[in-house]
């Protein structure tokens, strides 16, 4: 696992995201990393929900939390892959910042709230400004949700 989270390389103006901004004290502050330093296609993040992230059932997570985590892990993974493709250190100018154009989620089973969740990402395509990321969220090794994201890099302006 790399030492610096992708999100910790975002410049200040992009660090207020509710899901992953390190400058948002009320947010989830998700941190994403390369799964393996030798492989620049797979990423990982971990998150342990709080009791107030509950859905209708007290010990299960609400779907919006799952979507938020997948959303932020996916865009961070896309940005990391794009920097790598350009041979640049994350966060260096010109800034490459991806936003979600499309996020399709399959909720496979209820997600427990009391355990650490693991998110995986795989960059399956990166062409021009568009990245496709395959995502999953699991608990205790069991997948609870899978998703496909299309993330698009913001234009420089
Ligand atoms: C100051 C800012 C602060 C921005 C602050 C950023 C904070 C980050 C937040 C973290 C993550 C989030 O939650 S993001 C929040 C939720 N998402 C958003 O708000 C994004 C809203 N949507 C947009 O702004 C726009 O639609 C964009 C940027 C996604 C795309 O618009 P665009 O820049 O004009 O690009 P466009 O030419 O349309 O598309 C580029 C390529 O992507 C493809 N593409 C576009 N949309 C889709 C789609 N839904 N499904 C498939 N493919 C798509 C196009 O076909 C094209 O492919 P090809 O022809 O090249 O093959």
From TrEMBL:
The keyword Acetylation does not apply. Residues 62-137 form the Thioesterase domain. Its EC number is 3.1.2.2. It is an enzyme of class 3 (hydrolase). It catalyses: dodecanoyl-CoA + H2O = dodecanoate + CoA + H(+); (5Z,8Z,11Z,14Z)-eicosatetraenoyl-CoA + H2O = (5Z,8Z,11Z,14Z)-eicosatetraenoate + CoA + H(+); octanoyl-CoA + H2O = octanoate + CoA + H(+); decanoyl-CoA + H2O = decanoate + CoA + H(+). InterPro entries: HotDog_dom_sf, THEM4/THEM5_acyl-CoA_thioest, Thioestr_dom. Keywords: Apoptosis, Cell membrane, Cell projection, Cytoplasm, Fatty acid metabolism, Hydrolase, Lipid metabolism, Membrane, Transit peptide. It is found in: Cell projection, Ruffle membrane; Cytoplasm; Membrane. It comes from the Bacteria. Belongs to the THEM4/THEM5 thioesterase family. This is Acyl-coenzyme A thioesterase THEM4.
